[in-house]
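During the no-cost extension, the postdoctoral fellow (Dr. R.K.) reprocessed legacy sequence entries with the updated structure-token encoder. One reprocessed record is reproduced below for audit purposes.
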Amino acid sequence: MIEYLESLRRHGVWADARLLQAVKAAPNTPADVLSELAHVRGAQATWLSRVLGEESLLPVWPQLTVEELEEVGDVIDAKARDLHATLRVEDLPRAVRYRNTQGEYETPLGEILLHVAMHGQYHRGKANALLRAAGLEPAPVDFIFWSRAGRP
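Re-encoded structure tokens follow.
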């Protein structure tokens, strides 16, 4: 399970970088595309802060420029990499307690890590759909593309 979660984390890093490249290559990126990508980073930062017991680097729906997305993404990716490097199978059922706007919750760490991966991919898909709708080139970020590319 640890290897599986690590592959999902690595795929997410790759997918975020590919979308950032697509946005940089676009002549003018629609604001809603940046909003989706910023939300991916905001959610990652929020969940990491809950797991690590720290203050979040970002709100859940931040407004970020392309440059800010890249800068904060590097920090978030490093924190996630460090977290995953220390994971053990016995850590995955550990309950993480947190509060959001709807109340107080406890969720197993393994489920949070799976949620972060799935949630990010959902919003990356929305960003790609918005790029395509604006007549811009989307970035293929499916897990299978990453796998076929040798899991870089």
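Residues 2-22+42-136 form a domain with the Four Helix Bundle (Hemerythrin (Met), subunit A) fold (CATH 1.20.120.450). The beta strands are 95-100, 103-108. The remaining legacy entries will be reprocessed before the final report is submitted.
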